[in-house]
């Protein structure tokens, strides 16, 4: 499915008078705008553009020259630009309350579009085209917006034993994030969808109406967890963008001659989305598909999913991320700006492990400092080092070394010109 955005450019004459100079001084100012780029949206009879549409206009030098927003189909925007060649990127469904979006000053073709904290993907589209603006002429440009997400439209598991306490479905691996140019980044994403018990006591359904997800990496694995037992199925095909997916499963208890199994039937449907596909598979005890028992709760000091276990409270487990980065500019910024930069990193951090990473608090940092050598002696992928690390305390951001037994918290970022590492933590619940 393609959505269409039409661009019309009408040339406007500009007049520049040059005076003589007593000295030979050469400057290279920005060219004066002498063309008008008019923008309106258009879609096919059945297709609907996801609004708002955010438009980024890049020059030959790779810099973003203009960024504007179309709130709905009735909007038409006009952009004054010097004549030249421009690349125009459109992002449909780019709601600033849902996504962390690049400003004109920050934008590049590979800017990552990440989720705001606590938000989920919506209907997201992207497209790009090139236009050459010339004086005294009319220029037309058509840009097609392609949907970059798939939709889990419905998910139902039937005939679940009445005493069941929880049912969930996980799909992995998925793409982790999308860029402004429509490309994807990361191959370790995943999504877990919790189901709710219905009035009949044996049917479990997806609690939200729609779940938009980034497409799968190759052929994904679907894992259904019923209380303490998980069944995994390797899909025969990829789950691609621009498809609606409906999955229905039926739990079948063991009999004298057959083991316990869950039968899943599903359809992948394109609504001017795309063509319809069907999937059928069985999995359960005694079948050829892979069955895995639910993971047991790890102990403090163990490695779980590549993470060092910092704390355990019944089924709630606090993990130290296996990765770290010092690629955050902390110079000459206030606490709000620094928090925004850190949250942007956290929104796409190790999504296959958790979607709720945060800064370590003071108590967690103190534990890490006291156990620095022990943690580094384990099989964690990236060892802690002697640099400073971000720590949160009383709702403010500090930094401290973790290689000493007692913390020395500071928030004097303006006078600290060395790297500071982000090594987040997360607390997950294991059922």
Helix content bin: under 10%
Output mean pLDDT. Answer: 79
Taking the sheet with the most strands, its summary is:
11 strands, mixed
Cα distance spanning the termini: 40 Å
Structural class by secondary-structure content? mainly beta
* Low-pLDDT residue spans: 3-28, 41-46, 275-294
Q: Strand content of the residues, in percent?
A: 35-45%
Condensed summary:
The chain is mainly β and about 425 residues long. It has helices spanning about 335-345, 360-370, 370-375, and strands spanning about 1-10, 35-40, 55-60, 65-70, 75-80, 85-90, 100, 110-115, 125-135, 140-145, 150-160, 165-175, 175-180, 185, 190-195, 205, 210-215, 215-225, 230-235, 245-250, 260-270, 275-285, 290-295, 305, 305-315, 315-320, 390-395, 395-400, 420, 425-430.
Folded structure, characterized:
- With 431 residues, this protein is mainly beta.
- It is built from three helices and 30 strands.
- The chain has helices at 335-346, 362-370, 372-376; strands at residues 2-11, 35-42, 53-58, 64-70, 76-81, 84-92, 99-100, 112-115, 125-133, 138-147, 150-158, 167-174, 177-179, 184-185, 189-197, 204-206, 211-213, 216-226, 229-234, 244-252, 261-269, 277-284, 291-293, 303-304, 307-313, 316-320, 388-393, 396-401, 420-421, 425-429.
- Strands 11, 12, 15, 16, 17, 18, 19, 20, 21, 22 and 23 form an eleven-stranded mixed sheet that branches.
- A hairpin with a 5-residue loop joins β3 (53-58) and β4 (64-70).
- The longest helix has 12 residues, at 335-346.
- The radius of gyration is 26 Å and the shape is flat.
- Mean pLDDT is 79; it is low at 3-28, 41-46 and 275-294.
């Amino acid at each position: 499915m393609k959505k269409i955005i039409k661009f019309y450019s009408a040339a406007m004459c500009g007049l520049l008078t040059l005076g003589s100079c007593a000295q030979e001084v050469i400057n290279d100012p920005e060219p004066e705008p002498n063309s008008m780029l008019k923008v309106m949206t258009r879609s096919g009879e059945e297709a609907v553009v996801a609004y708002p549409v955010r438009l980024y206009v890049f020059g030959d030098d790779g810099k973003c020259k203009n960024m504007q927003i179309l709130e709905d189909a009735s909007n038409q925007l006009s952009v004054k630009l010097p004549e030249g060649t421009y690349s125009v990127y459109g992002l449909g469904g780019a709601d600033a309350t849902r996504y962390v979006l690049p400003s004109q000053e920050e934008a590049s073709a590979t800017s990552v579009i990440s989720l705001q904290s606590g938000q989920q993907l919506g209907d997201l589209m992207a497209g790009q085209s090139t236009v050459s603006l010339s004086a005294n002429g009319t220029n037309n440009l058509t840009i097609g917006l392609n949907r970059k997400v798939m939709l889990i439209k419905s998910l139902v598991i039937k005939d679940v034993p009445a005493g069941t306490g929880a049912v969930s479905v996980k799909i992995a691996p998925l793409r982790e994030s999308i860029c402004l140019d429509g490309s994807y980044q990361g191959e370790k994403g995943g999504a877990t969808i919790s189901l709710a018990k219905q009035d009949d006591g044996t049917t479990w359904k997806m609690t939200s109406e729609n779940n938009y997800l980034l497409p799968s990496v190759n052929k994904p694995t679907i894992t259904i967890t019923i209380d303490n037992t998980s069944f995994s199925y390797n899909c025969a095909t990829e789950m691609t963008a621009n498809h609606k997916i409906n999955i229905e499963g039926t739990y079948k208890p063991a009999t004298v001659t057959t083991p316990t199994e869950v039968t899943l039937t599903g359809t992948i449907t394109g609504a001017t989305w795309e063509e319809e596909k069907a999937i059928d598979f069985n999995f359960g005890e005694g079948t050829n598909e892979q069955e895995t028992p639910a993971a047991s709760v790890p102990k403090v000091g163990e490695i779980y999913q590549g993470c060092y276990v910092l704390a355990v409270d019944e089924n709630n487990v606090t993990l130290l991320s296996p990765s770290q980065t010092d690629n955050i500019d902390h110079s000459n910024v206030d606490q709000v700006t620094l928090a925004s930069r850190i949250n942007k990193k956290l929104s796409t951090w190790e999504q296959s492990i958790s979607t709720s990473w945060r800064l370590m608090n003071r108590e967690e940092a103190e534990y890490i400092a006291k156990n620095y050598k022990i943690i580094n002696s384990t099989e964690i992928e990236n060892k802690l080092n002697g640099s400073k690390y971000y720590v949160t305390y009383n709702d403010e951001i500090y930094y401290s070394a973790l290689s000493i037994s007692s913390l020395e918290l500071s928030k004097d970022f303006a006078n600290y010109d060395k790297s500071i590492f982000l090594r987040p933590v997360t607390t997950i619940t294991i059922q």
